[in-house]
Amino acid sequence: MGLLEQCEAAFGSPDLYRVLGVRREASPEEIRRGYHRVSLRVHPDRAEPDAKEEATRRFQILSKAYAVLSDAEQRAVYDEQGTVDEEGEALRGERDWQEYWRLLFKKITVKDIEDFEKRYKDSEEELADIKAAYMDFEGDMDRIMESVLCVNYTDEPRIRKIIQKAIATGEVPSYKGFVKESKQKMMARKRRAEKEAREAEKTKDELGLGGEDDLKALIQSRNKDRKKEMDDFLAQLEAKYVNNAKKGGKKTAAKKGKK
Predict the structure, then answer these.
(1) Could you tell me if 79 and 13 lie in one domain?
(2) pTM for the complete prediction?
(3) Beta carbons of 252 and 27 less than 8 angstroms apart
(4) How far apart are CA 193 and CA 209, in angstroms?
(5) Which of 91, 122, 167, 255 is a good FRET partner for 56, with 20 to 30 A between their CA atoms?
(6) Are 19 and 65 in contact (CB under 8 A)?
(7) Into how many domains does the chain fold?
(8) Is 99 inside a domain boundary?
């Protein structure tokens, strides 16, 4: 079974871009972030013992998809012909995909996140990310608030003002989902956010987290439903933090691809 067939069986689509959750026009950094985001959900280290074998298989398939799209020549062939070179170096069978992943992504600490948040909030990067999320989700504030990093419900008035200003200046279109959002939907979002904040604070207190504690403890403490949400957040945050640390400066905003 070839890679595209494996992707369809494991992820429900033979499209490598859909497997990574990115647009076909995605930049190399967006593809890298997409890989990181999905890999945190399927990484064998995060799987239950009875699910580790299946997680390992899906992780290997995902990593191969990334290997193709991260190689300029392989990606060009795939884009033009819709095929992949099964015998090429990117898909060589002897590669240790977990070690490959560890070389790409480093662990982060609570302090890393706190430092990143201080730099990110009210920055040009955050501004670009907010506009990108608004465009990608066509004004759906539920998804915008879930997508933009380091925000909670108390940030919503600030986020709204940024979007309203961008609409007024013609930088982004006026979507009905944003300008006509009902008060009921706003209140429901606020209630969900407040509940999640209470749960997060309770978990943090129970674990005694703080300072340089490894975030893995927090992830492992969550039940299966909450674990996916936490992994999604950490995937985005780690990708942004690592990219920022390596470049030591500004970078283009990450646009979430439509699936």
Answers:
(1) yes
(2) 0.46
(3) yes
(4) 21
(5) 255
(6) yes
(7) 2
(8) yes
The span from the CA of 6 to the CA of 82, in Å, is 15
Q: Which residue has the tokens 């300008």?
A: 179
Q: Is 246 exposed, middle or buried (0-12, 13-18, 19+ CB in 10 A)?
A: exposed
Does 96 lie in the same domain as 129? no
Closest CA to 227 of 242, 211, 213, 216: 216
- End position of a domain, from candidates 88, 104, 120: 104
Interval 79-95: pLDDT, tens: 999 998 887 766 765 66
Residue 210 included in any domain: no
Which residues span the domain enclosing 157? 111-181
Residues 97, 12 within the same domain: yes
pLDDT band at 65 (very low <50, low <70, confident <90, very high): very high
With respect to residue 239, please indicate whether it lies within any of the assigned structural domains. Answer: no
The predicted model gives 54-60 an average pLDDT of 87
B/e letters for 206-235, b = 16+ CB within 10 Å, e = fewer, are: eeebeeeeebeebbeebeeeebeebbbbbb
One-letter identity of residue 210: G
- Contact status, residue 259 vs residue 21, Cβ threshold 8 Å: yes
Residue where one domain finishes, among candidates 41, 75, 104: 104
Same domain, 92 and 129: no
- Say yes or no: 44 and 77 in one domain: yes
Mean pLDDT to the nearest integer, 172-199 = 87
